Each structure stands twice: as C-alpha cells, then as structure tokens.
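Moderator note: this is an archived Q&A kept for reference. The question asked for a predicted structure of one protein chain; the sequence and the answer are reproduced below.
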Amino acid sequence: MLQNIQGIGMTSMRTRERMVERLEQQGIKNHKILDVMRTTPRHLFVDEALASRAYEDTALPIGYNQTISQPYIVAKMTELLLEAGPLSKVLEIGTGCGYQTAILGQLVDHVYTVERIQPLQKKAKNLVWSLQIKNISYLYSDGGWGWVDHAPYDGIMVTAAPPEIPEMLLRQMAPGGVMLIPIGRAGGQELQRVRHTEAGFEVEVLEPVSFVPFLSGKQ
C-alpha cells in the first residue's frame, strides 16, 4: 500500500508537484489546500487503468455515471468554502469516490458525507480509512435530505448539480455558514456560494462549471 500511495511514473510525487504548480497558476492561493492535494494520492481514487491520468486537470469516470472532479474544481470549491476561516462541521453531499471527502477531512474538524450509490460509498469509506483519515462520518441516503441528525453545519459542499438549491440543505446551514453548490442543467451550470446571514440567504454566482446531475433516491 505504501508504494501505491507514493506512486511511480505518472503517479509520482514529481507529477503531483506539477499539478500543484498548475493549481497555483490557476489562482489557488491557500497553501494548506495545496499541501493536502500534493500529499493525497489521487490516483488511488480512480480505476487502475486511469491512474496515469489522475493528476491531469480533467474529470474522470468512477463508474455508475459518476465522475471525480478535476483537481482545479476540487481546490477551488475547497478554497471558497474555507475562505472565511477554519470550519468545524462540514456536510458533503455526494461522497463519490471519496477524493473530495479526503481533502476536506484533512482541513476541517469533521466531515459528514452522504452518498446515494452504496457500492461507491463502501469503496470510498474503505479507501479513506486506509489513508488514516478518520474524522469522517458516512451516510447512505438521498443527498437532497442532507443529514439532519448532525445539523446545523458551518459548511456544506454539494458535488452534483440540482436545478435549484434544495430547501432541506438551506435549513441545515448554521448561522454564518457557507454552502458551495453547482446549479443548473448540463451545458448551463454555474457554481454558487450561499451564505447564511442575519438577513437570510445571500447567493453569489461564481463561475461556469460542469457536474453530473443531482439525482434523488438510493441505488
């Protein structure tokens, strides 16, 4: 496992350093995030056949019509989520392969992550645990419901795109909390940041993005 974590060739530390340099060129400034992305073995979160492409700036398939987001989007959403300072409790909607979960787990006190596709959740849980990232709680559920038991959350990150912000997720934001969420249908999505202020919810449109659709139900 150690050799797999360290990587060789196109999964080596040198390749990861190039990824981090590219992220800096793309405007990522938070050095804690850059350090975590440098040391987290992204190639373990994709199929072995795609491992050589793990550090390219592209989304890759992880099965079940889902993808692992490109490194820039992972870094950017994480940076925007943490922009106002460290967070204690973060809700992630869409565990997927667990890569974003692992990044968050090394930067916040506790991550509560929800996934609707059980085989993906099981694989992600085992992998993240094997990397000794243990401040994660996992729920197999419809992401639209959030995770009421542990609400409210200082931060919420959504990794699939609904047509509009789910009301249940707004209800689970702590006062002063922030949510990063892609909104819209394929070909016309935008990343939004929602802040829970004394006056209500403030929505800021950030940049065009491309995510898989936000689907209901479990499978």
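Archived answer notes: The chain has one domain: 2-209.
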